[in-house]
């Protein structure tokens, strides 16, 4: 079994940034020990895929999956794998990591088990984690100038019903009946004394995916108005069909948010073959940069010094952009993603 555990972590950060780099944060982490190197590698990749699937299917944030360079991997690890996201401002965010420790730490700390032949063997370890910085990613990938835009699958409130002219006879009763009708979703009624315009703005600021407006004229016509938070599209729908329409709209919004984030990432990903191109792109076009690399740390350091971009990962899905390293011109060993990052 895989158990989910969240721990509070404190670090001495010289420079903090809300959600992304704080002195104290919650960290979902796991540690495993295995009999073979193959089992450890399998678990390492499995957990990376768990994180990537969660980010894409639940948070609507597309990820680049790949391996970290020797310089960027966890100190002492055999290999570190990462999922990398692109924020709306063109900066990269390492959103989760999975480490294969091999048997190095087991040998250092004498962690052994007795095998089937009753002999002591060193274990192969893994470690993987994701932190509350992913909340920052949700805000930066999906948010707009009006506030949060939460993917429906994680929104604490998926539907906010806003009665129009709520003091008129029958309006509040209709809103409460509608809430009961939509009970399969996470739904609330804003019955405060604030104006409808205020309520609309508050719903948008909080990122609630769907607003349902219902007033005297709507009740008379046996209808309501559904408003999507992401596109602000208004949909007139019969009260007889509203339960199905709300579900359909939430699913459409979820998939549309992922697709928009993917399009943004892909249109802000650039391929370069020379350092001149690299420097110009890094200076003028925020986003991911794809370039071939010889694998040498000296080139990795030079690229960072000249452009401010760091290696984000060597993606599992490789592309052949050129035959030579973008920095030194020697034969390239891999294609890597580069970018300025949080």
Overview of the structural elements:
The protein is an alpha+beta fold and 342 residues long. It folds into 3 domains: 6-142, BirA Bifunctional Protein, domain 2 (2-Layer Sandwich), CATH 3.30.930; 159-250, Rossmann fold (3-Layer(aba) Sandwich), CATH 3.40.50; 269-339, Translation Initiation Factor IF3. 32% of the residues lie in helices and 29% in strands. It is built from 9 helices and 17 strands. The chain has helices at 37-57, 104-109, 133-142, 171-181, 196-205, 216-220, 242-267, 275-284, 297-307; strands spanning 6-10, 24-34, 64-67, 79-86, 92-102, 112-114, 120-122, 124-131, 159-163, 187-189, 210-214, 223-228, 234-238, 269-271, 288-293, 310-315, 334-339. The chain has a 10-stranded mixed β-sheet with strand order 1-2-8-5-4-3-16-17-15-14. A 5-stranded mixed β-sheet has the order 10-9-11-12-13, sandwiched between helices. The longest helix has 26 residues, at 242-267. The chain is globular.
